[in-house]
Structure to design on (167 residues):
């Protein structure tokens, strides 16, 4: 999807497979590994169906999660972009990962929301959550938010996905 639809030019495409922490907290490792240049991150459970160059940001950005219930955080880390060194995010977490994984039971979005300086993409930036928009519309990115099973079901979105190979 990135090569076919996003319009992004990149030097490296990486899937972080190291399972050092619980679930979403593994994503924090990327801030330690990618300390220079322009970076953009997409969760694996997203559909990219349009140009994403407008999502590249100098300042650390995450999605505003307008679809979430008020008891949750207003952030979503399905798309993140930053330029330069943001390793302080990982270093903060890595000071006491066990404590932070217990304290931030809503995940890394809560950890960032309560401790890290950030800016937010807004819906007008061309993304939506499949939780609220299930039909194909003019969004460049659809976030499936832990609904990868639905992503693999027949529907308008299957034309954007490569066949998934299971081992």
């Amino acid at each position: 999807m990135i090569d076919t639809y996003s319009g992004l030019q990149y030097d490296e495409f990486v899937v972080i497979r190291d399972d050092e922490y619980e679930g979403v907290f593994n994503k924090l490792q990327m801030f330690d590994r990618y300390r220079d240049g322009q970076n953009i991150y997409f969760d694996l459970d997203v559909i990219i169906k349009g140009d994403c160059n407008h999502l590249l940001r100098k300042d650390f950005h995450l999605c505003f999660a307008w679809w979430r219930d008020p008891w949750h955080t207003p952030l979503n880390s399905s798309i993140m972009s930053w330029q330069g060194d943001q390793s302080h995010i990982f270093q903060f977490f890595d000071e006491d990962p066990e404590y932070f994984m217990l304290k931030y039971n809503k995940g890394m979005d809560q950890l960032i929301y309560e401790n890290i300086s950030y800016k937010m993409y807004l819906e007008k930036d061309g993304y939506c959550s499949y939780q609220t928009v299930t039909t194909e519309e003019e969004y460049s990115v659809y976030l499936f938010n832990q609904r990868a099973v639905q992503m693999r079901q027949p529907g308008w979105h299957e034309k954007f996905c490569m066949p998934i190979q299971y081992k």
The chain has a mean pLDDT of 91. The helical segments are 2-6, 29-33, 87-94, 97-103, 108-115, 148-151.
